[in-house]
Amino acid sequence: MFRNQYDTDVTVWSPEGRLLQVEYAMESVKQGSACLGLRSSTHSVLGALKRSVSEHASHQKKLLEIDDHMGIGIAGLTADARTIAKWMRNECLNHKYVYGTPMPSGRLLTDLADKHQRTTQTYVRRPYGVGLLVASYDKNGPHLYQTCPSGNLYEYYASAIGARSQSGRTYLEKHYETLNDASRDDLIMHALRALTGCVSGDVELTKDNGSIAVVGKDEKFTLIEGDELQPYLDRLELEGGTGGGDDDDDDDDDEEGGEEETKEEGGVEAMET
C-alpha cells in the first residue's frame, strides 16, 4: 500500500501502524551469519559462525569482549556492532572507575535498549542494524540477553539469531531443560551441535569459521577459537552429533544484518525486560 511513501523517514508511521525503517533495520539481523547463546546455573556460552568474503580473506569476528564479566555475539551490520561495543566498554570502564566494581549487566543492557530506542524517535538518526546476544556473569549468576534495533530487550535461557538460525533454535528448544545443570564443557558441546545445524549444506563447521565464548563462575570472558576449538570439534565428530531440525530460512546474503526475534521464535525466554 504505497510502501515507499512511508519508509523514507524513521518517524513516519504507515497506515498499518508500522515504522518501516525500524523493520528494515530488524531485517538486517536476519541476514547476518548465525549467532546463538545458552546458559546454565554457572556459565553462559556464546557460539557464532564467522564469514569470509573469499577463501583468501580472514574471517570476520563475531564475538567481542566488553569486560572481564561480559561479551557479545553479533548478527547484523558489523560497523554498527563495533560502535555499540565501544560504547558498552566505555560504560563499564566509567562504572568501574567511579564505584570500583564491575557494572551490573542488567543496568548496562537497560541503558543499551534505551540507546537503541532513541534512534527511532528522531529523523536525524537511523536505527542500529544489528542484533546482540550478550553473555555475562554477576553476583546474581549467569545471564543471556538479546537486544534488537527496535529497542526491545529480552533475557533468555537459550536463543539464536541470524541467517539459518531456526535449526539452532530447534535444537536448543529440545534440550533447554537439561542446560541448567550442564557443565561448562557440556554447554560448549551443545553450542557446537546447534551451530552445525546453522551452516549451509556445502560448508562444514571448522576451527576457522566457528567461534565459542564462555563466561561464568570463577572464569573471565574467554574466547575459544582456532586450535583451542579443535578438541571440541574432534569430540563432536566422534559423537556424530548435529543440531536442530530443518531450516526454513534460506537467507544467505553476504552482509551482516537481521530481524528481531519474537518471543515464540527467539528462543527459550526466561524474562522480558
TrEMBL record:
<dbReference type="GO" id="GO:0019773">
    <property type="term" value="C:proteasome core complex, alpha-subunit complex"/>
</dbReference>
<dbReference type="InterPro" id="IPR001353">
    <property type="entry name" value="Proteasome_sua/b"/>
</dbReference>
<dbReference type="Pfam" id="PF00227">
    <property type="entry name" value="Proteasome"/>
</dbReference>
<keyword id="KW-0647">Proteasome</keyword>
<keyword id="KW-0963">Cytoplasm</keyword>
<comment type="subunit">
    <text>The 26S proteasome consists of a 20S proteasome core and two 19S regulatory subunits.</text>
</comment>
<dbReference type="InterPro" id="IPR050115">
    <property type="entry name" value="Proteasome_alpha"/>
</dbReference>
<dbReference type="InterPro" id="IPR023332">
    <property type="entry name" value="Proteasome_alpha-type"/>
</dbReference>
<protein>
    <recommendedName>
        <fullName>Proteasome subunit alpha type</fullName>
    </recommendedName>
</protein>
<dbReference type="InterPro" id="IPR035144">
    <property type="entry name" value="Proteasome_alpha1"/>
</dbReference>
<feature type="domain" description="Proteasome alpha-type subunits">
    <location>
        <begin position="6"/>
        <end position="28"/>
    </location>
</feature>
<dbReference type="GO" id="GO:0005634">
    <property type="term" value="C:nucleus"/>
</dbReference>
<dbReference type="GO" id="GO:0006511">
    <property type="term" value="P:ubiquitin-dependent protein catabolic process"/>
</dbReference>
<dbReference type="InterPro" id="IPR000426">
    <property type="entry name" value="Proteasome_asu_N"/>
</dbReference>
<comment type="similarity">
    <text>Belongs to the peptidase T1A family.</text>
</comment>
<dbReference type="GO" id="GO:0005737">
    <property type="term" value="C:cytoplasm"/>
</dbReference>
<feature type="compositionally biased region" description="Acidic residues">
    <location>
        <begin position="245"/>
        <end position="263"/>
    </location>
</feature>
<dbReference type="InterPro" id="IPR029055">
    <property type="entry name" value="Ntn_hydrolases_N"/>
</dbReference>
<dbReference type="Pfam" id="PF10584">
    <property type="entry name" value="Proteasome_A_N"/>
</dbReference>
<keyword id="KW-0539">Nucleus</keyword>
<feature type="region of interest" description="Disordered">
    <location>
        <begin position="235"/>
        <end position="273"/>
    </location>
</feature>
